[in-house]
Design a protein that fits this description.
Strand content: 5-15%
CATH topology of the domain at 1271-1501: Rossmann fold
Pathway: Protein modification; protein glycosylation
Protein name: protein O-GlcNAc transferase
EC number: 2.4.1.255
CATH superfamily of the domain at 1271-1501: Vaccinia Virus protein VP39
Shape: globular
Radius of gyration: 39 Å
GO molecular function, one term: methyltransferase activity
InterPro entries: FkbM_mtfrase, Glycosyltr_41/O-GlcNAc_trsf, OGT/SEC/SPY_C, SAM-dependent_MTases_sf, TPR-like_helical_dom_sf, TPR_2, TPR_rpt
CATH architecture of the domain at 1271-1501: 3-Layer(aba) Sandwich
Distance between the termini: 119 Å
Number of strands: 40
Length: about 1500
């Protein structure tokens, strides 16, 4: 029997299977009592090959009872169930097979089972398991490629299809798939090459030749496309695909009658080709010869051909409450930048989230910013590409959709057969291939309006009509829409008419009308724009009728395809748009109106002909909708005659369109809510009352503005609710609120690596003030941060994470090696980014690599990877592949430890999240061994392991490596050993030179060095010649004498100093320093680009090194003047010796604190430490400007980012906060550290959504802002403080930029009393410079019965003072200034901070207001004051004058607290308060400002 079974097995496993012959051999082996299980098994297999699956199942079940080898039988049973479409059983038996044996075929089959159920992720997992068994299986690569294609990951799909043909060049199925994808990506030349190879080997391949014809059509080469189709039809007249392609070409060149005939012939040849009928139905709408009745009857053909024989039974939802939350399903290929996307998005975004769920089923794999917006609103997003209609209908039923909305109609990517299966209780047609009735009895409603479907048209629809009160769509203008230019006729001296519609809509009839218009408008021109006009054949079709009507060809201009923004900008060349007929413009009309171009239309006989009529009417331009051809011509001519009117229209139309119902998403969303609710209620009523024809026409009534606002308010519920219940796993949960906690660290060291180890998330200071932004915070759920690289990075909205903090602070990632990547990487290169995080490297690299390159990003943390995928979507980067795995030395599972910021996540056995690891080699092999140019590894200590797992890739491609430095010497030593064993050598990147320099293994590593670059030994010479590696023997150019003067003279802060410096820089006195300056200046003026790099880069390096040697020598010899120190710090930082630069700045800062003010009298020329400071203008005095520059450089050099700043850094930032000399980047750091996010003085280039968030104002703050014009927005801040032993809270209204003062007062106890002193019930507190009343509130906690006299002259804040102190007892408010005399004085109001307004000196950029001033002593005595417990003075320079006026009361004063602004003031205060003892001081020596507190010496004895 064994030999017989072997023979049978060969018959069944041979490529040309012979099941009948096998059955003849098997039948004699069966017995009445017992049949061996292999016989039963092979009988089942034979019937599988005969596709008799039910019979096969019976034999296989018998075999299962007899056999001990279960795996193969389970697998075969699963195949039977799969083909019988019993997918649950198929999955069950496939799983059982795998439980018994790890079969390659079983994994592949289970993947197919999942794929058939639209479970793409599960299918992909199964295929990946199969890869582990047979890594090089070509068939498997093809299957995985198909999944990637269906998911829209076209680049991944291309790579795997490419791998298939590399292994088997004759694999024409994969090659044809590549050609199709390349056509889709408009890479026509490459697609042609693949098709030619197929045809060369298989000249009879009709699919390949038909694809070639479609390629020609999409290129616009209609003569070739038409000829190829005709040739194919001569040989294969019954091929419907070829004939349909031929009909489409005919349609697009205007041969409509011929196109219609061939569409119908294709349908007759292959009656199952429903797309032929859909194309025919669209085509007849272009034909002016077709009547409304003909068109309506044609639509009935669809049900006649394709409706199911038995009407399907619709699902009945469990919940049929008429007022329940309705689940809406949308199925379309237009959920993107497409007429559907532009016209449905505002309405869907404005559907109340508590009333409607939205499930999207997309039949197209394109992703763009419209897709993103719809994706954000959707509760579920599901691709249904590649699945048959039964599966999709099952998915919709399983999702329990209540109302299914069809959005493709008879256009491409439609799923009308799914609709015909009636998978939802209610089915609706809206936008998308909507040119008439669908003709499907399965569709209950069609959303329209009174202009698209006027009264009396109901008989020409198979659906019930839902008439919206305005337009049936709501137009969303793109955010990149160009500005409107002046009327072109003003410059041209002639009128330009235009039409940007599909040329299929342009026929001889309408061309005749346009000719009449042009003849009535002398010298006028016609501009036609569409992709098809790039074809001579089509242009001739337009020119001939016009010439016959008397319009010369030179009066007609054609424009071809362009990107959408450029397409819109072409409207700036058009004065008046002419609508086609009988099929009018839809989206083109909306776009023309939005670009300020009038559109003249005559409605056609069907829905398709009335688009423009409704859009014009609902934009407020009904006068341009005409009733006859005479009126059509007359309207266009009259518009052309009045250029002044056209000019006014052009200036005002966009605003009118934006404010009209056409673009009012709130209004449309409210009306759509009513329409959907009424549809649902009609179904519920029909179901409950057993009404067969339950549908009725619906006329939605116009809502009032108040009713619209109520609906609009409901849409905001979505912003506050967590929408995770029905989210797909690829649509990660986005955070709902932005954390406001301040980031503090214990950082006290200079080293970057130790910084990263020592970050603490515990707050060092417990906040007692909480900005009250719950009611007005409009922060997004995800930060979308624009960077200087021109990419958008999506991150969680959390400033306690490193990436969002850094990108908002610096608008780029802070590692200097990113500059190397920007320079080195070229379009078309391929990069691996391991440890991609949120994409700080991956996204800029993807932009540079472009469509022809690729970035393979590995990020194992699921949430982090989900944000990177969002960024991929936002940036439309098909070239970016996100792999949710880590890299290591081996493949397998691992645990990932979640650090407080994801950039520090690390593989750890005690981790928080289970992740998968792969190796570079395993991925590379599976991906088809793509050529890799660069590998970046930043995986927190796993770099060496990743290198071990990538030796095949590294040996084959020899890419450059960018390697993150691990923690500690051992990690670096391991890295050195790994690199050496791979025949690579290590380099450091020198930021100031854009060069790589040798990394010396034995030398001490600069603690700020974050990455090393590894270069293959054999590539060193090439990279040196190209100027990427510093050549030590390069002779530097001679330094240009006085080049320092030329370069420094370009900086605004050197005005008036150069001549003085030149005199001081006498060669006999400062020759070495002058030479160093000239070397540095000559180096900095060398520009490095792709052409100059080979010689210029190393020359620049030699000059700068020579300058460094001279400066170091001077510094070490004791010349540590600020000029030498600052210049040396700059050179060290530029040469990558940042730690040395920091040490120099540390020394300079220390000397500033201990030496006298003459230290900053700089008599020699110098460079600032940071190039970013070069253009900083002097706002105050040179001394203060230089002080700020030094402090700023100390902070920015010391900390690569403010995120890492410790206590000293934070104190310095606080000192710099209000100084007018502070740079933008420092202001950004300050604001991020303090969460003070609304500083109007900050002018960042990007991310205005973050830096200037729009907030709803409270009634009080709105009044205060409008009436008193405070510099920043007024917010409510809740303050906690001690009130008689109890914790009390009060809300203080304060300008948002000045919240820091509340921290000083309430957290830092800036005005604390001396220990042991208490205020009695008869206590008196004088608050001079009361501002908004914060000190008065703070002082009230000492004794609520004490009297507080507040003095404040600034009318900007006096209303806030009154408002904030209104609940305090025993407070007087006096709106006057105090001094040493009476009268009027000018108050200079600070442009940023009201607390810095002053009567003592003018303020740059401030406004002046006259206020009353009183002698301080007299004003206080008038209050009946005989003693003072606490005297607080904060008047920005008037303190001494006020003290003098109060000298008679000082003896009866216990405590004095005041600010001083110079050392002279401090000495005068000490003199006036000679009877007092200083008990506390907060001295800021940087620019001579401090707060001092004194206690009366008489109290010291008591």
């Amino acid at each position: 029997m064994e030999s017989q079974l072997n023979r049978i097995q060969s018959l069944l496993e041979h490529p040309d299977t012979k099941p009948n012959e096998a059955l003849m051999l098997l039948t004699p082996l069966t017995g009445e009592d017992h049949t061996p299980w292999p016989v039963l098994f092979y009988i089942g297999i034979a019937y599988i090959h005969k596709r008799a699956f039910k019979t096969a199942l019976r034999w296989l079940q018998k075999a299962l009872c007899e056999s001990s080898d279960k795996a193969r039988i389970y697998h075969a049973i699963s195949i039977c169930h799969y083909n019988l479409r019993s997918f649950e059983e198929a999955e069950t038996y496939s799983r059982r097979a795998l439980e018994n044996e790890d079969l390659y075929k079983a994994w592949v089959h289970l993947g197919s089972v999942y794929r058939a159920q639209a479970k793409l992720r599960e299918a992909l997992t199964c295929y990946q398991e199969a890869v582990n068994i047979e890594p090089n299986n070509v068939e498997l690569a093809h299957k995985i490629a198909e999944i990637y294609r269906d998911q829209g990951q076209l680049d991944k799909a291309l790579e795997l299809f490419q791998y298939s043909i590399e292994q088997h060049p004759d694999n024409h199925i994969s090659r044809a798939a590549i050609a199709q994808l390349l056509i889709e990506k408009k890479r026509f030349g490459e697609a042609e090459e693949h098709l030619e190879l197929i045809i060369a080997e298989k000249p009879e391949s009709i699919p390949a030749q038909s694809t070639f014809a479609d390629l020609y059509r999409q290129k616009g080469d209609y003569p070739k496309a038409l000829k190829l189709c005709r040739d194919l039809l001569e040989e294969h007249p019954g091929n419907a695909n070829v004939r349909q392609n031929y009909a489409l070409c005919l349609q697009e060149v205007g041969q409509l009658d011929e196109a219609e005939r061939h569409y119908l012939q294709a349908l007759q040849d292959e009656p199952d080709q429903y797309q032929c009928l859909s194309s025919y139905l669209m085509c007849i709408h272009y034909n002016p010869e077709r009547s409304r009745k003909e068109i309506f009857n044609a639509h009935k053909l669809w049900d006649q051909h394709f409706a199911p024989e038995n009407q399907p039974k619709r699902p009945i939802p469990q919940n049929i409450d008429p007022d329940k939350k309705i689940r809406i399903g949308l199925i379309s290929g237009g959920l993107k930048m497409h007429p559907v996307g532009w016209m449905i998005t505002p309405g869907l975004e404005n559907l109340p989230a508590d009333q409607f769920e939205i499930y999207c089923y997309t039949t197209n794999n394109k992703f763009d910013w419209i897709t993103q917006r719809l994706h954000r609103r959707a509760d579920k997003w599901q691709s249904v590409i590649g699945y048959n209609d039964e599966i999709i209908a099952g998915m919709i039923r399983d999702d329990e959709i209540d109302i299914l909305v069809e959005l493709s109609g008879h256009a491409a990517d439609n799923r009308l057969r799914t609709i015909a299966m009636e998978p939802a209780p209610v089915i609706v047609k809206w936008v998308g291939g909507l040119f008439n009735t669908t003709g499907l009895q399965a569709v209950d409603y069609l959303i329209t309006d009174q202009y698209e479907s006027p009264a009396g048209e109901e008989a020409f629809y198979t659906e019930k009509l839902v008439r919206m009160p305005d337009d049936y769509i709501c137009y969303l203008p793109p955010d990149y829409v160009p500005k409107i230019e002046p009327l072109p006729a003003l410059e041209n001296d002639f009128i330009t008419f235009g039409c940007f519609n599909n040329p299929s809509k342009v026929n001889p009839d309408i061309l005749g009308r346009w000719a009449s218009i042009m003849k009535s408008v002398p010298r006028s021109r016609l501009l036609l724009k569409s992709k098809q006009y790039e074809t001579k054949t089509l242009r001739e079709r337009i020119i001939k009728p016009l010439e016959s009507a008397g319009i010369a060809a030179d009066r007609v201009t054609f424009r071809g395809e362009s990107n959408h923004k450029d397409h819109l900008s072409h409207y700036n060349q058009v004065d008046i748009a002419l609508d086609p007929w009988p099929y009018s413009g839809g989206l083109t009309t909306c776009e023309a109106l939005y670009m300020g171009v009038p559109v003249v239309t005559k409605p056609g006989p069907t829905f398709a002909g009335r688009h423009s009529a409704t859009h014009l009417t609902n934009a407020g331009f009904a006068d341009w909708v005409t009733d006859s051809w005479d009126e059509y011509v007359e309207t266009a001519v009259n518009l052309a005659k009045d250029q002044k009117h056209l000019t006014r229209l052009r200036q005002s139309m966009r605003e009118q369109v934006e404010n009209a119902p056409l673009c009012n998403g709130r209004r449309f969303g409210a009306h759509l809510s009513i329409a959907l609710r009424e549809m649902w209620r009609q179904w519920v009523d029909g179901y409950e009352n057993n009404i067969e024809n339950w549908q009725a026409h619906i006329d939605v009534e116009t809502l009032s503005e108040q009713e619209i606002n109520e609906y609009a308010a409901l849409t905001k519920v979505e912003e506050a609710t967590n929408k995770t219940e029905h989210k797909e796993s690829d649509k990660s949960v986005e955070a709902d609120v932005v954390k406001q906690q301040q980031i503090t660290t214990d950082h006290e060291t200079k080293a970057w690596n130790s910084n990263m180890n020592s970050i603490s998330t515990d707050q060092g200071i417990k906040n007692s003030i909480t900005p009250n932004k719950e009611d007005n915070d409009d922060r997004p759920e995800v930060f979308k941060i624009e960077t200087k690289d021109g990419v958008t990075v999506c991150t969680p909205p959390d400033l306690e994470l490193l990436t969002p903090y850094v990108l908002l602070e610096q608008e780029q990632w802070f590692e200097p090696e990113l500059d190397f990547i920007r320079d080195y990487l070229q379009p078309g290169m391929r990069v691996v980014d391991a440890g991609a995080g949120f994409g700080a490297y991956a996204l800029p690299m993807a932009k540079i690599a472009g469509d022809t390159g690729a970035v393979y990003a590995f990020e194992p943390a699921s949430e982090t990877a989900s944000y990177l995928e969002k960024s991929k979507l936002v940036n439309n980067f098909d070239q970016l592949e996100v792999n949710r795995r880590g890299l290591g030395a081996e493949t397998g599972p691992a645990m990932l430890h979640h650090a407080h910021t994801p950039e520090l996540n690390a593989i750890d056995e005690e981790g928080d999240e289970g992740v998968s690891l792969t190796t570079l080699d395993a991925w590379w092999t599976f991906a088809g061994q793509p050529a890799v140019d660069l590998v970046k590894l930043d995986i927190n200590g796993m770099e060496t392991e990743a290198l071990q797992g990538g030796q095949q890739l590294l040996e084959a491609d020899r890419p450059l490596l960018l390697l993150s430095l691990g923690q500690g010497a051992e990690s670096l030593r391991d890295l050195h050993q790994s690199i050496h064993s791979l025949n690579y050598e290590l380099f450091e990147y020198i930021p100031g030179l854009s060069l790589l320099a040798d990394h010396e293994a034995g030398e001490k590593v600069d603690p700020y060095l974050m990455n090393l670059v590894a270069v293959p030994l054999e590539k060193r010479q090439q990279l040196e010649q190209e100027g990427w590696i510093y050549k030590k023997d390069t002779p530097g150019e001679e330094a240009v004498e006085t080049s320092w003067k030329e370069l420094l003279g370009a900086f605004p802060w050197t005005t008036g100093l150069l001549d003085h410096w030149e005199q001081q820089l006498a060669p006999n006195q400062q020759g070495e320093y002058a030479h160093a300056l000239n070397l540095l200046s000559t180096a900095e003026q060398i520009e490095i680009d792709s052409e100059t790099r080979p010689t210029a880069a190393s020359q620049k390096g030699s000059l700068m090194l020579a300058a460094a040697r001279k400066l170091v020598k001077l510094y070490n010899e004791g010349n540590t003047t600020p000029a030498v120190a600052l210049t040396l710090a700059r050179v060290m930082a530029q040469l990558g010796k940042r730690n040395q630069a920091v040490e120099i700045m540390d020394d300079l800062m220390e000397r500033m604190d201990t030496e006298d003010s003459t230290l900053l009298d700089v008599h020699l020329p110098f460079f600032l430490p940071l190039p970013d400071q070069d253009q900083a203008e002097i706002e105050t005095t040179f001394s203060q400007w230089l002080t700020v520059r030094i402090a700023e450089a100390w902070v920015l050099l010391r900390e690569p980012t403010g995120y890492l700043g410790g206590k000293q850094t934070l104190q310095m930032l606080e000192a710099l906060e209000d100084n007018p000399e502070t740079l933008t980047i420092t202001r950004a750091t300050i604001r991020l550290r303090k969460n003070n996010l609304n500083d109007p003085a900050l002018d960042t280039d990007h991310n205005r959504w973050f830096w200037d968030p729009l907030k709803e104002k409270t009634a009080d703050s709105a009044t205060a802002n409008s009436d008193y014009r405070v510099p920043s927005e007024i917010i409510n801040v809740k303050v906690n403080f001690n009130n008689g032993g109890d914790t009390a809270s009060v809300t203080i209204r304060i300008p948002e930029k000045e919240v820091f003062r509340l921290k000083n007062i309430f957290e830092d106890d800036e005005y604390a009393l001396p220990e042991g002193l208490s205020i009695k019930d008869n206590g008196v507190i004088i608050d001079i410079g009361a501002n908004v009343g914060a000190f008065a509130i703070y002082a009230s906690q000492w004794n609520k019965n004490a009297v507080i006299h507040c003095f404040e002259p600034n009318p900007q804040v006096t209303p806030l003072l009154e408002l904030n102190t209104q609940d305090l007892h025993n407070v007087t408010r006096n709106y006057i200034a105090l001094g040493d005399s009476d009268g009027t004085i000018a108050l200079s109001q600070h442009p940023i901070n009201t607390g810095q307004s002053s009567t003592s000196h003018p303020i740059k950029g401030g406004s002046k207001v006259d206020v009353s001033v009183r002698h301080s002593g007299a004003a206080v005595l008038e209050k009946g004051v005989t003693h003072i417990d606490v005297l607080k003075i904060d008047t920005e320079g008037a303190e001494v004058a006020i003290l003098r006026g109060l000298k008679d009361l000082l003896a009866a004063t216990k405590v004095v607290m005041l600010e001083y602004h110079s050392e002279d003031e401090r000495r005068e205060i000490d003199r006036l308060l000679s009877g007092f003892q200083l008990y506390a001081a907060d001295v800021q020596k940087l620019w001579g400002i401090g707060t001092v507190k004194y206690v009366n010496k008489k109290l010291l004895t008591s």
